[in-house]
Design goal:
There is one protein chain. By secondary structure, the chain is of the alpha/beta class. Helix content is 35%, strand content 17%. It has 2 domains: 220 residues, DHBP synthase (Alpha-Beta Complex), CATH 3.90.870.10; 161 residues, Response regulator (Rossmann fold, 3-Layer(aba) Sandwich). An 11-stranded mixed sheet has the order 1-8-2-3-7-4-6-5-9-10-11, sandwiched between helices. A 4-stranded parallel sheet has the order 13-12-14-15. A hairpin with a 5-residue loop joins β9 and β10. The two termini are 46 Å apart.
Amino acid sequence: MKYLKIDSPERLTQAVQNAIKTLRSGGVIAYPTDTLYGLGVDLNNEKALQKLYLLKKRQKSVPVSAMVNSIRDIDTLLGGLPAVILRDLELVLPGPVTVLLPNTLTRPVAAFKAESKKQLLPRLGFRIPDHPFCHALTAQAGFPISTTSANLSGKKDVANIQELIAHFGDKLDLVIDGGALPEISGSTIIDFTRQPYLVIREGARSVVSLQKDFGPGKVNLRKTQFDIRFVCTGNICRSPLAAAILGALLQKTKYRANIRVDSAGTMDLSSSPAHELTQKIAAEQGLNVKEHKSRKINLQLAGEADLIIALARNHFDYLRRHFPEQREKIVLLRQWQVDQPLSNPSIPDPIGHSMEYYRQNGTEIRDEIQRILPFVLDRIRQFAEYNEIAV
């Protein structure tokens, strides 16, 4: 193992020359990036790739990303990207992100061959680290270089050069010591093949900063749980019962592990239990709402939800007025997926009425939930596909 420290412009130049020589001979280098230390090989050298996978104890089915010098390099490799994608790439590159793009390679790259010759990798990952060594190396190498964290697959990230050497030792051909790195997290992975763009992993670049730069509705953080929130007035009668009914139905589907159904109210009743008659009606339907505590809908609860179902028109209007940025996910239970406007689209408030009224009210809620169930399942299916959730 050869070791070089880059603590001056002259030594950086020397390190780049040594790195290129090592890569061209099929060696593995460890080098600094704008996030963590990375392991690099020539992505067109199959023997070097095999050595890299063995070193990291990584499955060949998990492809590595390519480090290149510029967005133009990516554009050339992929045979031309849409103008809107090129413009958006400029918002994050160079920088601590990995971008996933459609596989439209104009020439073969060994690292991007799928295990099955009949199946192409649908997406390819690219990095342009904002680090002087990476800039100089990719500018002079003339070939794409692997960019994968210098750790064993699935293990914690290596924090410094001492840990790196302790992990791999003489299994590396060249170690470039760039000193302590400012980041201790990996790159943020953004899938540009999805609309809105999907952050697969949040790392050194925060989702909040990405959403600010890209603009409203342009980028989401990957979720594994679909949140459904029913809303009524006090959150003690209609909405907790509705949540219990739908939750029980969804538990019978293949999506049950990835769904949360709960409720809130437009009025703050200070953590009150479900109404006594609501508890009795729920019990008659084989449900239990005894542990329920009321809460008021707020910006966080509205923002976290993937579907917000209002029980009455006044709740629907309240939600759209107070959370306009969530309008697309707010629906009115009785009116949702009904072609013609209903003269009375509200589930009435049973508070103050008899047990029989509560029973009729509960039956109406159940009937409406059974009606909308196919549409809810379709939303969940789309959510699972977008977020790549295997069910």
